[in-house]
Amino acid sequence: MKGAVKVFLQITTAIVFLLSCSLPIKADESVSNHPLHWGMKRSRNHQPAEAGELFEKTLAKYGSFYIGDTSKKDIYLTFDNGYENGYTAEILDVLKKKKVPATFFVTGHYISKNGDLIKRMVDEGHIVGNHTWHHPDLTQVSDIRLKKELQLVEEEYKKITGKDDMMYLRPPRGIFSERTLKLSRDLGYVNVFWSLAFVDWYVNNQKGWRYAYDNIVEQIHPGAVILLHTVSEDNAKALAKVIDTLRDQGYTFKSLDDLMLEKTMPKPLMYEKYFYLKKDTQE
């Protein structure tokens, strides 16, 4: 079922991009390159995080997102991987044991030095996303450089996995503009931001598993796209407890592919597709 859904998603996403992005990629001076720094009003008491009208409209215009359906208790676990600090394998162990899907956004530094972990992510059913090769502010690089930043990661990913299906991008440091959203979209990417995050990346200032646990549980909300960093020991030690607690609260962990299916496919067609896929797996 998962393989069929993945293929169907790639086909429908490709059609959307072909219909909306038929012109050659080139500098478009009519599109603003004014830098925007991602941020949102944090969730409390299971109420959805809010990014504000400007961010909401800008992301929607270019097919980007930061949150799922806030009427459903589906949540999406994502990790940013800038470099390896010894905790990714432990995180993967927990995800495998708990049967939770995740997306790992990797930089050039990470993917070029951790091929075994990248392969394990894919083999265990996770998604590997693009976090650029050098982690630059994309609003400050040329169109050619932006394209190269993405292509280098794609090429290394294909070399390791044999796959050519990278489609999600997380802009470094959450800095973006209409130009970067449009250009990356035209290159076939969906920009994925987040609706739940906290300061977890200072490796010399880890505060214990309870710090990570409390920050996640206190901010959780329906449709949450959770951003964590794999360099954090706190995150690695808290993850199993977080998963158990959120499931006890009625939340379901899903993949970004599931979210994209909901966003790109008309509901009657989506329900029909799932019905036949489910039927096929039961026969």
UniProtKB/TrEMBL annotation:
GO biological process: carbohydrate metabolic process
InterPro entries: Glyco_hydro/deAcase_b/a-brl (IPR011330), NODB_dom (IPR002509), Polysacc_deacetylase_ArnD (IPR050248), Spore_PdaA (IPR014235)
Gene Ontology CC annotation, any one: membrane
Gene Ontology MF, one: hydrolase activity, acting on carbon-nitrogen (but not peptide) bonds
NodB homology domain mapped to chain residues: 73-254
Name under which the protein is recorded: Delta-lactam-biosynthetic de-N-acetylase
